[in-house]
Every structure is written in C-alpha cells, then in structure tokens.
Amino acid sequence: MEVKGGKENIGYVLLFEAIGTANLLYAINTSASDAGHLQPFAIGLTIFGNICIMGEVSGGHFNPAVTLGVLIAEGRQNFVSNIPYAIAIICAQIVGATAGCLSTMYSQYYLPNKGSFTPLQPGIAALKPNSPNPTLKHGMLQSLWSEMILTCFFVSVILSAKYLNGAKDLFLNALVIGLTLFCCVTIGGDVSGGCYNPAVGLVQIIF
To answer: Residue 36's pLDDT is what?
Structure first.
C-alpha cells in the first residue's frame, strides 16, 4: 500500500510477505528449543533481516496488525480501494506462517536416516509458556493486556518509521524495528508468550 508500484507488482508483494512471515515463524519455533532464551534475539534479527531484504518490495509488514495499521495510516482517500489489497497481504502472511510451522515440524520431527525418517521431539513453541518463576502466575486478562499494549507500541514504532520520523536508510529503520520487537518479546514474553502478531497467534494455536 505504501510502496510505490506495489499494486502493479502484487505478486512479488504477496510472495515476499509470505516468505518473510515463514522465516519469522521458523525462527520463533526453532529458537524455542533452548527454553526460549534465544527467542528474542532470533525474532528481532529475523525481522531485521526480512525488512532489509524485502522491505522495499513489500513494505516489510509480516504482521496483519502492521498491515491494518498501514491501511488506516494511508488515510480515508485510499482506504476503500486498499481494503482488498490489505486482505490479500494478510492472507499471504497467514499462508507464510503456515509454511513456517510446517518447515519447523519437518526439521524438528523427522531426520533422514538411511532412507527412513526417525521421529524427534516436537518443535512447535507454546504460545503462552509457563513462567520460570512459580510466584508469577499470569492470567488471561494480564496476557491480553500485555499483548494489546506491546502490539500497540510495536506497530506505532513501525508507523513512525514509515510516515513520521523514519530514517532515509532502510537499514536503520530495520534496525530500530528489530530492536523494538526484541524489547517487546523480552518484556512480555513470560507474560503472554510474546506474540504481537495475529498471524503468529492464529497459526501457532492451530499447530
């Protein structure tokens, strides 16, 4: 929507959004094997890399919440005409998230061994893990509140980079967004699981 020529190259936009979201889900799930200690780093670096590589083509959303924010930020004049475009992007993100989980399952569940497949441990991360501190028992309301506030903060930083005070260098914008997501996951990961992405939440629940 915000990328010049995006609608004329919608195939590339949808492809890159799907690939970027698949990368994100793969990073989320494969980094969970270390009790989640590396997850904030893996997630932040993955978003940073995705935006650097694909941001100029697709806008670098990889998140339906970001797509919705961009749709609103584009203004009333383009709102109605952009709705089908935004829906297509969100669908591509969900498809990409599914592909990321399937890739994780293949790489974590099975290992080629002499022409056969040997079962391994499941590799799909829990959406809301148990807190390592038994005295911190977060309920559903606390989890929802954490997700809402930190998703709002994360999307606000992205929209600011796109429309208000963003750097002219894509690298710097990607770095800021990656660091923001790293901080959000570090702050709220033990409370809600650190989702901040409807595509992640929907697909993780299914798998």
So the answer is: 60
| Contact call for residues 194 and 184 (beta carbons, < 8 A) | yes
Q: What is the pLDDT of residues 143-199, one digit of tens each?
A: 888 899 999 999 999 999 988 887 788 899 999 999 999 999 998 888 888 889 999
Q: Residue 202 and residue 36: Cα distance in Å, rounded?
A: 20
| pLDDT for position 2 | 77
Dihedral, CA atoms, 99, 102, 107, 111, nearest 10 degrees? -140
Q: List domains and CATH numbers for the chain.
A: 10-206 (1.20.1080.10)
Instruction: Average the pLDDT over each of 9-23, 47-61, 131-145, 193-207 and give the range with the smallest value.
Output: 131-145
3-state SS, 114-147, equals CCEEEECCCCCCCCCCCCCCCCCCCCHHHHHHHH
Q: How far is residue 6's CA from residue 84's CA, in Å, rounded to a whole number?
A: 13
In the numeric block, the tokens 């969970």 are attached to: 32
CA distance 33 to 82: 40
